[in-house]
Every structure is written in structure tokens, then in C-alpha cells.
């Protein structure tokens, strides 16, 4: 009897020790850093002008993706896809969240922060939230534009540093954490805070009336120095605009350095997955709000302390911001629940993105497509487009192509766009790679070979030698739209009738 009891006790002790050991070895956290409207203006992506030493050193401990894409080129919709793994048309965040725009995700969406908090993971957000409703995107710790000034929580890197420190102070060691730091840099400022310069590059620089950000050493660039992206007109106005953007990129970089320093100081360096990316393309014509390559290509770094095999490597795999939620769920071993959303009431939602963790071990061989879905940016900017980027080919479907492409308020007042308008009005050379008219009026289908035509200028859609490519891509795109419950799946020439069995019924509207 006694021996039996001792055996039971030993068994119990062993079980307790084992669970402690597993708990200890499996301590895993996530730090997700999202920049605002940031692009490839960093040393990581071989821009030799702009100084970004902190991103460079993060890249040395990361896998760097050369083909990362957002599925939607607009702030709130993109952030909703990052935090749900569902495209905008599926989660309901069709356009911007704030003010008159008023978009929100469906109440039933099972978002990343919701799923993590249900598994006792400590969640925090610092910076720009820009999604709703609150019940879908709950965070335990939250300093955002909802209860602070977005300049303070999104651009004041000293304030951000102190908030990260505060988050770690409130954090209990035994729980894992998910901390989301959403910088407002490198967003434009001309529309909202013009007194601080086109990119808020003067905010906190210590000059009269600008205040001071104690931890920021501003770096200035001259218009002659900047590298003008091929999709931006090489004009004095655009160069000055880019020089201001670079100064803001430097502040972002120094802010990232401070956040990573706080992570290290708190002792979480060796058990935290760090992800860096941005929400959409840079705020220049052909960039943000477009599903062209220049509007959807994103920087993306994935740094895992547990996977050092490919540190410093560059991956050519096609990855999407839709992959962030599946990656983080995989990292925490949290399963995705079964539930339905309005777009597809009879079939349970499933994530079409994938976990990126396998890429940390070896280069994936068949990750070669990325999907896009845009409906609006501002509430007035209805221009639904769906796209698929597969291998060399990029297909875009502009559903309402007969309307002029809409321009957002923030881009409109930018020096680059004003200069383009002036030059066009005065009949002067624009130095842009397309005319304003071509930019406004698009064809319904656009097909590009991005290997031979990276700027996407030659539409191959009516070239018979590409008809098989066109048909294959169209079918893959349609399949993804049905799979993700896209209400726009039948437009513009059919209407979706979804009673009994969803199908497209013809409109005979001549399209
Ligand atoms: C930057 O250039 C180096 C050297 O040419 C190359 O190895 C690296 O892959 C490039 N990085 C990216 C992100 O393209
Ligand atoms: C913002 O909300 C958090 C709770 O999420 C609270 O701790 C903090 O004090 C609030 N900040 C302000 C400035 O109201
Ligand atoms: C930035 O935040 C710090 C700490 O809260 C504060 O001392 C400083 O005045 C702020 N700077 C600006 C420009 O608001
Ligand atoms: C960090 O983790 C790696 C890999 O798991 C391990 O080899 C290393 O010893 C750890 N370093 C520290 C400081 O704990
Ligand atoms: C565009 O033209 C207007 C009117 O002539 C002028 O006030 C403005 O400064 C010009 N803007 C740029 C960026 O050239």
C-alpha cells in the first residue's frame, strides 16, 4: 500500500515538473510593429540614402520578405485584415473607420486579439488602432487615438518608449503577451497637421513651436539626395516631399530601436516573435489606395529567436498581411474557431492565409500567389477592385472602371499631387510615367507581366497569347472571392442572388 502511494506521489511530482518545464520552454510572446504608409525607403531594402540602422539590425535577426503584399491599400481595411486574417469584404471593414467614413467589422468576427485574450494571453496596443467596433478588437492595455493624441502615441517615440515600458511593468511573467505597436509615422500630415510639415517631419524637432521628442535625433535629407521611386514623377516638388518623408522614416527607425531596447531590457528578447510591416503603399500617386504593385508591396521582417537558420536571409516567397493572424495563432498554438459571417451564412469562415513559420526554416517552393480586395478608402471613394498576383502575372479587376479613380483628401493636398495637377492643367511635361487621364480612367481588366514590366504599364488583357493566363487567373480570383464570401463576386454585369443557393444572375447592362 505504502509503495503504491509513493509511486502515485512520484508520478504526480513528475507530472508537475513536466508541465512546469513545458510551460517554461514554451514561453512565447509576440511583438507586432506596423508602420503607417511606410514603404521600401530603408536600408533593409537597399535604399542607401535613408538612415535606418535599427531596422537593419532587426533584419540581421530576421527573414526579410521581398514579395510581401497587403490585400488592401487603405489604412483601416488593412489593419482589419492584419488583425483578423480576413479580407475587407469578408470582415466588413470596407473603408476607413474614423469620422464620417464610419466603417466597422462585423460584430461576430473572431479577431486575433479576441482569440488571444480568450486563451489568457496578455494583449496590448500602443499607437494607431483605426479599427472597430471595440468588442471585436479588445486589448487589455490600450493607448491609442481613442483615448490619447495620435501624434503622442504614434509619433512621439519617447512617449511610445515609456508606454512600452509601462506595458512590461503591468505584465505578469507567467502569461504570454501580444504587444501591437502601431506607429503613425510615416503617414502624411499636410491634411491634418500642416504646421508640422508634409510628413510631420518637424513635430518634436526642438525648433520654435515644434516641441521636443527627447529621444529623437532628427536626420535631414536634401531633395537632391533622395531616390525617386520609378512610379513617382521626378520633379522638384516630389523630391522635396520625399526628403520630408525620409526624415519621418528616420524617426520611425529610432522609435523601433527604442521599442526593441525595451523588449531586451525586460528580458523578453529570446522568446518573442517580432514582426515588422506596414499597412499599405506610400502616399504618392499610384501608391496608397491602388492595388497596383506600388500600392500593395510591403516591407516585411519576421524575426524568431527560436529559428536562427535563416537570419539575415531574403525570401522570394509571396506572402500577405492576411498571413499575420495565422502566423501568430500558430506561434501560440491557438486554434481557429468554427463560426459564420454574413457573407457566407452557410459555410464556416476559414483563413485563406497561412502561417509563415515554415519559411523560417527553409525557402517555401510553392508560395507564389497573393490576393487583393479593395472597396473604398474614404466613404466617397468607392472603387471596388479585386486582384491576384501569381508568379510573374498580376491581374486586376476594376469593377466600376467607367468611373474616374477617386483621390483621397490627404494625397490631394500633397506637394507631389498639386504639382502633377498644375503641370497637367498648364500642359507642361509631368515627368510621370502615365497621364492623369490614364490614372483616372482604367480598363475593366488589367493584366501585367511584372517581370518584364515592373511598372505595370502594358496591359496584356487583349493580347491573345495571354488568353490562357488570363482565364486561369480569373478563375483563381473568382474561386477566392466565393471562398471568402465576397458580396462583389458577381459585379459589375451580374447580381448576386443568395437565397437558397448563391449564384450570379445577368443584368444585360452591356458590360
Ligand atoms: C540588397 O542587396 C544585397 C546585395 O546585392 C542582396 O544580397 C540583398 O538580397 C538585397 N536585399 C533585398 C531586400 O533585396
Ligand atoms: C487609455 O485606456 C487605458 C485602458 O485601456 C487606460 O489605462 C489609460 O489610462 C487610458 N489613457 C488615457 C489617456 O485616458
Ligand atoms: C513627447 O513625450 C515626452 C514624454 O511624455 C514629453 O516629455 C515630450 O514633451 C513630448 N514631445 C512632444 C513634441 O510632444
Ligand atoms: C536564446 O535561445 C537560443 C535558442 O533557443 C539559445 O541557444 C540561447 O542560449 C538563448 N539565449 C539566452 C540568453 O537565453
Ligand atoms: C500649383 O498652382 C497653384 C496656383 O497657381 C499654386 O498656388 C501652387 O503653389 C502650385 N503648387 C505646386 C506644388 O506647384
From TrEMBL:
It comes from the Eukaryota. Residues 28-333 form the Sulfatase N-terminal domain. Residues 428-481 form the N-sulphoglucosamine sulphohydrolase C-terminal domain. Residues 1-25 form the signal peptide. PROSITE patterns: SULFATASE_1 (PS00523). Its cofactor is Ca(2+). The keyword Transport does not apply. One of its GO terms (biological process) is heparan sulfate proteoglycan catabolic process. The keyword Glycoprotein applies. Keywords: Glycoprotein, Hydrolase, Signal. It holds the Pfam family Sulfatase. One of its GO terms (molecular function) is N-sulfoglucosamine sulfohydrolase activity. Belongs to the sulfatase family. This is N-sulfoglucosamine sulfohydrolase (sulfamidase). It comes from Anabas testudineus. The lineage of its organism: Eukaryota, Metazoa, Chordata, Craniata, Vertebrata.
Amino acid at each position: 500500500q505504502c509503495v503504491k502511494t509513493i509511486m502515485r506521489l512520484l508520478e504526480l511530482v513528475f507530472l508537475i515538473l513536466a508541465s512546469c518545464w513545458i510551460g517554461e520552454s514554451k514561453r512565447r510572446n509576440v511583438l507586432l510593429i506596423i508602420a503607417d504608409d511606410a514603404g521600401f525607403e530603408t536600408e533593409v531594402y537597399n535604399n542607401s540614402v535613408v538612415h535606418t540602422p535599427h531596422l537593419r539590425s532587426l533584419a540581421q535577426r530576421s527573414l526579410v520578405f521581398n514579395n510581401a503584399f497587403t490585400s488592401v491599400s487603405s489604412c483601416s481595411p488593412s489593419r482589419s485584415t492584419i488583425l483578423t486574417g480576413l479580407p475587407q469584404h469578408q470582415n466588413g471593414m470596407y473603408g476607413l473607420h474614423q469620422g464620417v467614413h464610419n466603417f466597422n467589422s462585423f460584430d461576430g468576427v473572431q479577431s486575433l486579439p479576441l482569440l488571444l485574450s480568450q486563451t489568457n494571453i496578455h494583449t496590448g496596443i500602443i499607437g494607431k488602432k483605426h479599427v472597430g467596433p471595440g468588442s471585436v478588437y479588445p486589448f487589455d492595455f490600450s493607448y491609442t487615438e481613442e483615448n490619447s493624441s495620435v501624434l503622442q502615441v504614434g509619433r512621439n517615440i519617447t512617449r511610445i518608449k515609456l508606454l512600452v515600458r509601462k506595458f512590461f511593468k503591468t505584465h505578469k511573467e507567467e502569461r504570454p503577451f501580444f504587444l501591437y505597436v502601431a506607429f503613425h509615422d510615416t503617414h502624411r500630415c499636410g491634411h491634418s497637421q500642416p504646421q508640422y510639415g508634409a510628413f510631420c517631419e518637424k513635430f518634436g524637432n526642438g525648433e520654435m513651436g515644434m516641441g521636443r521628442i527627447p529621444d529623437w535625433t532628427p536626420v535631414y535629407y536634401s531633395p537632391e539626395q533622395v531616390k525617386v521611386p520609378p512610379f513617382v514623377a521626378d520633379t522638384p516638388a516630389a523630391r522635396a516631399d520625399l526628403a520630408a518623408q525620409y526624415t519621418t522614416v528616420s524617426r520611425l527607425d529610432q522609435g523601433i530601436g527604442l521599442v526593441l531596447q525595451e523588449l531586451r531590457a525586460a528580458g523578453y528578447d529570446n522568446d518573442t516573435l517580432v514582426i515588422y510591416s506596414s499597412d499599405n503603399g506610400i502616399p504618392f500617386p499610384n501608391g496608397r489606395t491602388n492595388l497596383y504593385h506600388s500600392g500593395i508591396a510591403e516591407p516585411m521582417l519576421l524575426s524568431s529567436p527560436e529559428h536562427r537558420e535563416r537570419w539575415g536571409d531574403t525570401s522570394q516567397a509571396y506572402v500577405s498581411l492576411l498571413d499575420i493572424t495565422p502566423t501568430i495563432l500558430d506561434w501560440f498554438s491557438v486554434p481557429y474557431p468554427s463560426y459564420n459571417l454574413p457573407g457566407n451564412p452557410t459555410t464556416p469562415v476559414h483563413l485563406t492565409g497561412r502561417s509563415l513559420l515554415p519559411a523560417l526554416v527553409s525557402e517555401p517552393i510553392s508560395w507564389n500567389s497573393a490576393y487583393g480586395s479593395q472597396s473604398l478608402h474614404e466613404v466617397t471613394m468607392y472603387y471596388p477592385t479585386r486582384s491576384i498576383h501569381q508568379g510573374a502575372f498580376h491581374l486586376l479587376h476594376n469593377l466600376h472602371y467607367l468611373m474616374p479613380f477617386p483621390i483621397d483628401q490627404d494625397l490631394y493636398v500633397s506637394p507631389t499631387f498639386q504639382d502633377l495637377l498644375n503641370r497637367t492643367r498648364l500642359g507642361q511635361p509631368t515627368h510621370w510615367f502615365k497621364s492623369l487621364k490614364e490614372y483616372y480612367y482604367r480598363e475593366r481588366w488589367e493584366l501585367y507581366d511584372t517581370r518584364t514590366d515592373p511598372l505595370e504599364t502594358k496591359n496584356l488583357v487583349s493580347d491573345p497569347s495571354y488568353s490562357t493566363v488570363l482565364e486561369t487567373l480569373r478563375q483563381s480570383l473568382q474561386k477566392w472571392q466565393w471562398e471568402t464570401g465576397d458580396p462583389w463576386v458577381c459585379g459589375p454585369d451580374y447580381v448576386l442572388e443568395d437565397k437558397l443557393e448563391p449564384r450570379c444572375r445577368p443584368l444585360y447592362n452591356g458590360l
